[in-house]
Amino acid sequence: MIKKLPQEVINKIAAGEVVQRPFSVIKEMVENSIDAHAQNITIYLNNAGLDLIRIIDNGDGIMKEDYELLCERYATSKIRVAEDLSQLFSFGFRGEALASISFVSEMTVISKRRDQQVGYKGTFNSQKLLSMCPIGCSDGTEIQIASLFYNLEKRREALNKSEEKKSILQLIQNLSLHHSQIQFKLFYENKCEFSSFNRLETISTIMKINQSCIQEKQFDSDVYKYESHIIFTKLSSVKCKREFCLFINDRLVECDTLKKKITLAYQDCYLCLRVEDGGYYVYLSIKLQPKDIDPNVHPNKKIVRFLNEDEISTEISEKLKQELSPQQTVKLVQTML
Ligand code: ADP
Ligand code: MG
Predict the structure, then answer these.
(1) Which CATH code for domain 208-324?
(2) What is the value of ipTM here, to two decimals?
(3) What atom in ligand 1 is closest to the CA of residue 94?
(4) What is the position in ligand 1's atom list of the atom closest to the CA of 59?
(5) Rounded-to-integer distance, Cα 90 and Cα 79, Å
(6) CB neighbours of 143 closer than 8 A, spacing ≥ 6?
(7) Residue among 57, 76, 91 to mutate when testing ligand 1 (max atoms within 8 A of CB)
(8) What is the CATH number of domain 7-195?
(9) What is the DSSP letter of 186?
(10) Which positions fall inside the DNA mismatch repair protein S5 domain (predicted)?
(11) Domains of the chain, residue spans
């Protein structure tokens, strides 16, 4: 017999889909900070985010009047009407992240807007504001997420903590490359794991190579109507460390076609070597006309499809190849280990 699930169960299932891991919580929160025009974003993680995640920004802050609706599903300050969806200028628009997180954690929000005398601290659970009081604090927002998945015991147990920390570090490093005007800091157990500098310095630290082995280029096309900015390293001796970080219209996404062609570009240039002997880092930002990106892709899905995907991927990887080996004289860059 079919029966409709109680709302409580529906909410728990939906929340589990939006926030699958500490990684997804951090991605959503950092995007909120960027939407709030933050120039500084600091993230603290305890026990890979399972015990405590704190995200502190110096962005616009949250109005006292907004606390009541802050964690309600489909409550957002970013769009108002359906037409706004066709011209989005923010990462968020669904009003789902805070709501979902509030179902699977104990959440505290401390925020002060520049035009307010004091800030406010609110505690939340299952979409509801539990308590609220004035508090002295600096401009911006701090969100504390404690005991993540306290009510999803299996998910807590199944989490691979070291993998999680690795992917969070990679996420923050990648975001810091794209949003280079923002100062990012990431702490694990109160110890600084990453602090963003300029892009070249970040990549040189990740790959342990000299900055002179990193190049920056702009590839554009009038035919396929795109602009792209690429930062790439020569093949280095950091074995198996291959990172391809792709932003399409400012969103961090994945695209298998591009990834494969970039790998091939390196393989073709370094024929004398087995590619598994070397590593590289490629940051690529592509700006396409919004109408050329598949609108059916769910915002949560990282995979993206776009018009002329094959042609654009081939063109960019061919240009990369030319830059990598102008005279076909290529050799492996030694790392500074
Ligand atoms: P969305 O980002 O889709 O609007 P969220 O659940 O992520 O949904 O956030 C709900 C609302 O909370 C946002 O629309 C925004 O008004 C507010 N908010 C969340 N985080 C911040 C922040 N760091 N600074 C300012 N406002 C925030
Ligand atoms: Mg959001």
Answers:
(1) 3.30.230.10
(2) 0.99
(3) 3
(4) 24
(5) 9
(6) 29, 32, 53, 54, 55, 107, 108, 109, 110
(7) 76
(8) 3.30.565.10
(9) E
(10) 203-325
(11) 7-195, 208-324
